[in-house]
Amino acid sequence: MRDITAAIFNKIRQDDPNQAEFQQAAQEFLLSVDKVIDDLPHVAYHKILDRLIEPERAIIFRVPWTDDEGTLRVNRGFRVQMNSALGPYKGGLRFHPSVNLSIIKFLAFEQTFKNSLTGLMMGGGKGGSNFDPKGKSDAEVMRFCQSFMTELSRHIGPDTDVPAGDIGVGGREIGYMFGQYKRLRNEFTGTLTGKSPLWGGSYIRPEATGYGLVYLAAAMLQDKSDSFEGKTCLVSGSGNVAQFTVEKLNALGAKVVTLSDSSGCIYDPSGIDTEKLAFIKTLKNVTRGRIAAYAGKYKEAEYYPRTENNGANKIWTFPADCAFPCATQNEIREIDAKNLLAGGVRLVAEGANMPTSLEGVDVFHDNGILFAPAKAANAGGVAVSGLEMAQNSSRIQWTAEKVDQQLQRIMKGIYATISETAERHGSKGNLVDGANIAGFLKVANAMIDQGYV
Ligand code: NDP
Asked: Which atom of ligand 1 is nearest to the CA of 260?
């Protein structure tokens, strides 16, 4: 790294030595920016990197709630308002026991550049709690969401900060939080996205991240005069992003043979067709069961409980053409990337945020794998959230067809931007560089225009 980028990375390591995920996200970003920094003296002069790595605001708060036995429980809530150069802070809320400041900061940092790539006017933020919705009753989830929103409501608003869903936060949680926000503020505004289309949500928002991921990957294949027709695909996770990734891959003629949750994965060589996907949606969204039940119902499928297995993740060992990690961060490490390569995979597109470690990404780049990083590949979700904000502001609702057309336009646009940016800066085919540099330049120029704030 050049002196200026190395100094920023050292500062992060010194100031936040325990924030491994934030360090990882910042390192990946700085390695790309390093390639253009000599051509950007104004960025150094205005200390853009020094300012970018520091959240504009990080809020940590207590969330007390009562379980069904009447026992008081206490969780920790977070909202990191990373950067508002391009618009109100925008980014999801994650409810998962692993949530801590490092994870929320890495997600908010990534979100800033992702939102920039969509071309919509949104700044970057992220939040959540170490609350685990798994195994909780609806009433417990509602009481938690109400307590969480009671504090969060002081810090958000339709022109200030507009949260959405993420891991553990779907339509149910957004509904409870929206209800509490409305009650506290006595206003019906578009302060949260991912709402039900019955009361202010956008059509295609639940589908948007998965569909958008496949649209972007399809654009990559099209550039090579190829398509998804007849391709075998590995998809991890079984939540929102995974479900709609499978749905769109099926629609484009691909066959998906895997899904997973935090307990293990299933391999179904005959393919997860529409009927089987409907079973998954009910299992995960309604009865809130485990993925193992799939193999109980469909005898052609095998279930593999999660084991450490020398660090290798079983789901990436099956033969396929394409892989879509859609569960969580660092689910593809170096050994997994090598397993994917050995299994014949030629395209990897990230549905989850930072699912591939830096070493895993190197394996893909060194071996000519088509690789789409999360901040570009999963931007469809926040893009449709941006469209939901636009619909809320004008108090109208667009048709599903119109939203889907806009989503396709935005994802094709992102692919064009990041591939051209990579080529222009001497990194042809490296979409990590393309996404980081394109996302960064727009935010940096806006920060320079707005002075030292
Ligand atoms: P969901 O909660 O709907 O699903 C998450 C899935 O990942 C579940 O199958 C879950 O299994 C699994 N999972 C979660 N944590 C782990 C873990 N530590 N190890 C193994 N499996 C795990 O979340 P989403 O589908 O919304 O989000 C998935 C990813 O996509 C996240 O990285 C998120 O940040 C990213 N993303 C989501 C967007 C959205 O619009 N929802 C937008 C952009 C990115 P289990 O049920 O066992 O917990």
From this structure: 9
Task: Kindly list the domain boundaries of the chain, sorted by start residue.
Answer: 3-186, 208-368
352 lines ligand 1 (CB under 6 A): yes
Virtual torsion, Cα 59, 60, 66, 67, nearest 10 deg: 110
Contact 147, 67 (CB under 8 A): no
- CA-nearest residue for atom 22, ligand 1, is 262
In CATH terms, the fold of domain 208-368 is Rossmann fold (3.40.50)
- Looking at ligand 1, which atom is closest to the CA of residue 351? 30
Class of domain 3-186: alpha beta
For 2-56, what is each residue's pLDDT tens digit? 999 999 999 999 999 999 999 999 999 999 999 999 999 999 999 999 999 999 9
In what side-by-side order are the strands of the sheet with 264-267? 258-261, 264-267, 302-305
pTM of the model: 0.97
Ligand 1 centroid–CA 327 distance in Å is 4
Look at ligand 1, atom 15, and give the residue with the nearest C-alpha: 328
**Cβ atoms 326, 351 nearer than 8 A:** yes
